[in-house]
Design brief:
The protein is α/β, with parallel strands linked by helices and about 300 residues long. The protein has one domain: Rossmann fold. Helices cover about 45% and strands about 15% of the residues. Strands 5-2-1-6-7-9-8 form a 7-stranded mixed sheet, with helices on both faces. Helix 2 links the parallel strand 1 and strand 2. Helix 1 crosses helix 2. The longest helix is centred in the last third of the chain and has 63 residues. The radius of gyration is 31 Å and the shape is elongated. The termini are far apart. About 30% of the residues are buried.
Length: about 300
Amino acid sequence: MTLLDDEPARRSTATAAPTWLSPVSYWQPAHIVTSAWLEHAPFAFWLVDVLRPVRIVELGTHYGFSFFVFSEAARRLEIDLEIYALDTWQGDDHAGHYGDDVFQSVRDVVEREYAATSHLMRGLFEDSRPFILDDSVDLLHIDGRHGYDDVKQDFEQWVDTVRDGGIVLFHDVAEHDRDFGVWRLWGELSSRYPSFEFTHGHGLGVLAVGTVRARSLTELFNADEATTALIRSDYEQLGARIARQARLEAMPAEIESLHDRVSALTSELARARSETDRRDEILAEYVHSTSWRITRPLRAVGRYLGRGPR
């Protein structure tokens, strides 16, 4: 596994623009859906621009955010490629289990906007493996099952599909809770392959397979400690913009949900008040009834006896 050292990794930001940023890094995604991958959209745009892939394969798509980002980048950059999204669209213990509506929502977007380049392959990853040729994938994104054995199996089954100079992305390399094991596999692989790690957005590992030819990627993988900190900081800030945009877009739905909840609580309160008023009316009717007047002496005796001896 080698890098082409055709340019120094350390570049002074005072004399030249950072090679890890370009205009596409500032693009805004067209489709923002529920995702733990939101903050990595700026880097994904940049990576597609630099790598100019012919084929992208994604293991684990869920609501489709990263898949939409890759598809959008290809369309806006006018890259002729094929993008495959593999998922059962049933969920798992980490993502939770869900109904067919999630798959339908992803398919609707693909059919409407990315039908020419993007393909959905529903089923287990290993069942789809025979349909993807070895040495045919420029970018492999692994974001399916998150246990150590699971993600290791995904990598070992699919790494041969990546052509020389290709890239493998691992999401959740910084996630150590809930029996996640991607971080453990990443620790093993990143010492054997050219690599770069982002720590924000649950972590994103960038791994090179074979000889890296793109100059910008060479600098990324060769970055020293100070440059690594700058790269991480830049993309963390850009990713935070996407996350803020997602929150803003979600606010109308959240406000509507709160309005619905307030209306439901108001109705419940009105019913409770109505029931209370009715009980008060029944009590008042009883107090003024004949039986209440007739039993008044008995109630007086009860109160007297209840006092006990003095």
